[in-house]
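Hi Q.,

Before the meeting this afternoon, I wanted you to have the adenine prediction in hand. No need to reply - just skim if you have a minute. The sequence and ligand are here:
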Amino acid sequence: MKIRALTLFPKMFDCINESILGRAIKNGILDFDAVDIRSFSKDKHQKCDDTPYGGGAGMVMTAQPIYDCINAVDPNHEYLRIYMSPKGERLSDGLCRELAINQNILLLCGHYEGVDQRVLDLCIDREVSIGDYVLSGGELAAMVVIDGVSRFVEGVLGSAVSHEDESFSDGLLEYPQYTRPPEFMGLKVPEVLLNGNHKEIDKFRRQKSAELTAERRPDLIKPDGEPR
Ligand code: ADE
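Predicted structure with the ligand bound:
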């Protein structure tokens, strides 16, 4: 999968080269680049923002550098072009899976009070929000999308890992996990996990999953007790 982040702060994306995503990049499963919007500005000082028409606080990112940057990175519109915005559709497990189907995604990161609406109207396919709060820029939100989506790209997590038991995969939160030692600071691993009876273990985990979801996320459960 090819991912391009368009940003005024490309260095913020250095952390993508760590851990699981870093390995996927090294192995050629992910092809990632952070593209500096500023280098496309035709302003003599490479300015990329201006005061909003109609007045108001803050600055708005100008259309020209973004328009030229998008068209340089994606001249034939082969990327799904996403603008990171608190006004967008909310990121979810379902949306991560859906976005992972695309061969190429481009993530436009805004800053200041936002981006000139015309460049969004001209170039952007979708707007995505990572939650109902406002970040100072779209970069951290774009990294959340990249991480959440990449995990569903074949080969990124390695063959031994499956999504089946994760939180949200069956509409519920994941059961608690334990590893060695069997006792830590006086707390014991639940006996059922040590006895090797997989039917019992599955039952225990399903029950823990249901309890945890009912306690923490009742909104995920229908009145009949089934996941939504
Ligand atoms: N940019 C600023 N806040 C954001 C949010 N909540 N989601 C996505 N992009 C953003």
